[in-house]
Amino acid sequence: MRFEASDHTFAVCAYKDSPFLRECLDSVTSQSLKTNVIMATSTPTETMRQLADEYRVRLYVRDGEPGIADDWNYAVSCAGTSLVTIAHQDDTYESAYAEEALKAINSVKKPLIYFTNYGEIRNGVNVDSNRLLEIKRRLLFLLNDGRFSGSKFVRRRILSLGSSISCPSVTLALSNLWKLPVFTNEFKCDLDWATWERASRLQGDFYYNTKILMHHRIHVESETTALIEDSTRTKEDYAMLRRFWPAPIAQFINSFYKSSQKSNEQ
Q: What is the mean pLDDT of the chain?
């Protein structure tokens, strides 16, 4: 199957009034290859509705309490396309993201997920290299630009050392994964890592594009920062590592992984 631009959707997950939502919408609606864009939320606001009207993007509103897994799954279900990129409201995408995604996805036999290299946004400035980013890039080395993309062994070994795949950089090839929901409620912080682990067991391809094609914003108000502060992240990291390793090894790796959480602080 060959995927076209009409098969891809940026599903922007919006939460209350983010001061960065406009930047995100600018980036996904200004792609060199025009694909679909929607917004989804469980916390609609007037500002959000105004932005949806301004950018001519349909806004979907989910009933019920906000929750990361439920919000992401709702956004995916609203997209209605085979390829979906869950765009977080605080993040931005380079103009070539969609074009590069379609080219890479169509270059492999059975895409499962496509994801890219990424940088961070700290205090409004793009940061494309730091210690944690370089560690993640080294972990992903064997998947560079389609190498060993179909190897279960390689991708499971990569995932066994931590979550090096940035969720907002990922495009899901839903037709080759499983029926919705994509994400489960077992974790608050590591639900994306759990999904990649589940997908890593399937026949198909994990395509990693080494170009920096999106930027993930780091700020103290983020949900990730809050989960780090109450130790949720550490507990969940250990639970994920136990899917690959015996308890003593998982605990040893987690002790090093915990120190990397400091990079989420300003």
A: 92
Q: Which residues contact 67 (CB under 8 A, 6 or more apart)?
A: 42, 185
User: Which amino acid is located at 12 in the chain?
Assistant: V
Domain that holds residue 232: 5-264
In this predicted structure, the answer to whether residue 158 has a pLDDT above a threshold of 70 is yes
CA distance 153 to 164: 16
Using CB atoms within 10 Å of the CB of residue 16, give its burial: 0 to 12 exposed, 13 to 18 middle, 19+ buried. middle
Residue 11 pLDDT > 70, yes or no? yes
State the Cα–Cα distance between residues 111 and 50, nearest whole angstrom: 36
Which of 220, 172, 183 minimizes the C-alpha distance to 70? 183
Specify the number of domains making up the chain.
1
Residue found by looking up tokens 């300003």 in the block: 266
How do residues 207-249 score in pLDDT, each as one tens digit? 999 999 999 999 765 555 455 455 788 899 999 999 999 999 9
Q: How far is CA 140 from the centre of its chain?
A: 15
* Tokens read off for 225: 């920062």
Q: Are 72 and 157 in contact (CB under 8 A)?
A: no
User: Which CATH number is 250's domain given?
Assistant: 3.90.550.10
